[in-house]
Amino acid sequence: MAETVKPGDLDEDKYERSKRLEWFDLDKIQRTRVLVVGGGAIGNETVKNLILAGFRKITLVDMDRVVRSNLNRCIFFDEEDAERRRLKVEAIVEKARKLDKEVDIDYRTEMIQKLPEDFIPSYDLVLGCLDNVAARLHLNAHCYRHGIPYVDAATQGFVGKVQVVLPKETPCLECGMNKTHVKIMEERFSCTGEDVTFHVPKMAAEITTTSVVSAIQTRESIKLVLGMEKELIRNVFYYDGMRNVSEILELDRNPECAHHPVSEK
């Protein structure tokens, strides 16, 4: 006997439209433990996307505070947060819980490099939303070592990129680094003004680029969780909003990269 569906019943299920996708598995998504490192523009957008996609177990890491220049590209920040110089993670977590009261989201305010060795391996998936080369390489190294998928996202003005690092299957983030990246990594600087020996000029930011790059980062995360490895980005997704193009740039494993044992080369 066919089930009787009353008018409007389908509209009561928050994920009804997502469930129409044959490959969608809400249970797997809700059980996945996700670590998001970086609470700026990409971090804001990605946390929002993750929650709307159904992710429930999220931890956010960032030590910076909200300033007024964040407000034109960060959905979870407002004027009061900037006036109070509130911690970014506090503002994101509070408003993320309003977006979905069932989300289990918490935060850490230390540098990712200073957290315990067993912190990163306690997650199923790690997302990098950073503009700090040293922190990104730290995530890359620890994720590769422990076999945890890592999705790295970055923007500069109208340009953005996303790289999926799948241990033993793809090149890692460090494979694509050059001497300039290494030089920047070796310089010591702080976004908070503490213990400063070097300052990096602020990078241009553009909200539509952030939206596109964050959407790709979230989409690849969903693929990873649902076992769609054949459909993953296996090189570097490159986006140029000024030229209105996106393309996949090939990236080979660096034979000198320490993260790839001889058996992988």
Outline the structure in words.
It is a single chain. This protein starts with 15 loop residues before the first helix and ends in a 16-residue tail after the last strand. The chain has one domain (23-264): NAD(P)-binding Rossmann-like Domain (Rossmann fold), CATH 3.40.50. α3 packs across α8. The longest helix has 19 residues, at 207-225. It has helices at residues 16-19, 26-31, 41-53, 79-84, 88-99, 133-146, 179-186, 207-225, and strands at residues 33-37, 57-61, 104-108, 125-128, 150-156, 159-165, 236-240, 245-249. With 265 residues, it is an alpha/beta fold. It is globular.
Sequence-ordered SSE layout with sheet pairings:
Elements: H1 16-19, H2 26-31, E1 33-37, H3 41-53, E2 57-61, H4 79-84, H5 88-99, E3 104-108, E4 125-128, H6 133-146, E5 150-156, E6 159-165, H7 179-186, H8 207-225, E7 236-240, E8 245-249
Parallel strand pairs: 1-2, 1-4, 2-3, 4-5
Antiparallel strand pairs: 5-6, 6-7, 7-8
